[in-house]
Structures are given as structure tokens and as C-alpha cells.
Design goal:
Blueprint: E1 3-7, H1 12-22, E2 29-33, E3 39-43, E4 51-55, H2 62-78, E5 83-88, H3 107-118, E6 122-126, E7 141-144, H4 147-157, E8 162-166, H5 172-182, E9 186-195, E10 198-205, E11 212-220, H6 224-235, E12 240-248, H7 254-259, E13 265-269, E14 281-284, H8 287-298
Parallel strand pairs: 1-4, 4-5, 5-6, 6-7, 8-9, 8-11, 11-12, 12-13, 13-14
Antiparallel strand pairs: 2-3, 9-10
Helix pairs in contact: 1-8, 2-3
Amino acid sequence: MKVKLFSGSANPKLAEDIAYYFDKPLSKITVNRFSDGEINVQIGESVRGVDCFIIQPTCAPANDNLMELLIITDAMRRASAKSITAVVPYFGYARQDRKAAPRVPITAKLVANMMEKAGIDRVVTLDLHAGQIQGFFDIPVDNLYGSILFFDYFKEMNLENPIIASPDIGGVARARYFASKLGLDMVIVDKRRERANVSEVMNIIGDVEGKDVILIDDMVDTAGTMVKAAKALKEKGANSVRAFATHGVLSGPAIERIKDSVLEELIITDTIPFDKECNKIKVLKTGKLFAEVIRRIVYNESINKLFD
């Protein structure tokens, strides 16, 4: 079976890790810019009749990385690739997944349409912001669970009295899944968001007195919600507060907020490149997971069994 892995420019280190665990070198591709900023792509080897995997998260700069993915896809389609799978560890534009107010877009659906139209046959991603985004596609979408990476780390911590917390009502299903897998209780931080990237913690639903709390979320952006949630939990008597967030967007004042917060640590993954200094932030690697998923796709094996 002919299989080739290609990396875009969004997260080449992760692509190299995936290639290492898949035991196959990354194939040749050149990505350049014209003087006006337009993206220029050339596939450096034949892909005729090949199952191609493009590793490209659509993180910041999201517009460039998304456009690069689409252009690489177009190049492969025109070069007669047998199939094109987009491995998108972080799926950008996912936060606008419904009409939450009048006259707003549904960008997650728009991006899904663009990816399909470009010629992508399958998408592999990790912890979509909302599970229903899978339904925006008419092609297979493998939405992997980041919890599989956090379980081992959690067990190594040997916390005395752990409990799971959702930082908001919208994340309850994710936190409940994590809590059920570990056999732990769960609490909820109820908040009111006044505007984008600004939140106000209102109430803690559940008892955290003397507990070692673990906040579970799919991403941390400006860290406002997470930091305020951690503070509220400590004020309610929590012994310690840690956070697991799959995608470390960490924009704006996020790093300083985390440094100055009551959080013991924030554990993220390498779906988005992270090269800043913060002793409270721990990065878990996803290369082995994605390599195994690619292998199972190639050999038509069950992916769901990875998470049983």
C-alpha cells in the first residue's frame, strides 16, 4: 500500500514526531510565499495513486495555515493522489459552531465546506470544540479524545482527594466523560460571559472543600475563564487546582495570567506549537497517538478501540 506523510508549516515538529512513530520519513514538499504574501506550494515527489496524509493544524495564523492546507490539497488532487487525509490536530474556527446571535456566521461549517471542496477525503482531529461539528462534513471525521493522553499523567500525580471540574456549563459532557473513566465525582463552575474572551465566575455547583480539583477543557485561549475558575474553586476550599486543556492557544495575556494564578499547573498538548517560558505549563506529546491512528486508517482497523 502506497502511503506518504506531508507536513505543512504550521507544526513541523509534531509532523516529525508522527513520522518517527509511523516509521516513515516525511515526504518532500516546498511551501513558499510570493512577495505579496500569497502561498506557493510544490509537491516534491510523485503522489499518483498514493494515500496522502497532510499534517497541518489550523492554529494561528489561522488564515494562512488553513489556506496552506487547502492549497496543498489542491496540488495533491491535481497530481492524481488516490486519497487525501487532513490530519488537523487543532481545528481552528470551531468556536463559531451555531448562530448564537443574529447576523453571525457559522465558521466551523464554512471551513468544513472549504475542506471538502478542496478535495479532502477524510479528516483526523483531536478534541473538536463541539462534537456536532463532525456533522458539518459529508466525509469521515475521526474526532480523537485528548483524555487518553491525560489519563496516564493523572495517575502519575497520585493526588490524595481528586475531583473533576468543568470550567463552564458547555464543557460538562467532556468533564463527565473524564470523571466517569476515572471513577471520580464532578463539579461545575457556572459563569456568565459578557463578551468574547471575557467571563465572570458566578457559582460553584458541588462541594470542593479539601479536594484536589482538575479543570477539564478542550482549549485555553486568553486563560481568563480558567484562571477565574481556579480562583473561585480555591475560595470555596479546594486544596489545589490543576487544569487539563488539549489545545494551548494561549493568546494575549494568557501566559502572564497563568503565572500569576492559583493554578498548580496547566497541562496541554503539542497540537499547537508552544515555545514560551512558563514553569506552570506542561506539554504532552501527541505524535504517537496520531501515528497509531494513521496506521489504523491505512490498514482499516478500528480507531475507537484505542479509547475503550
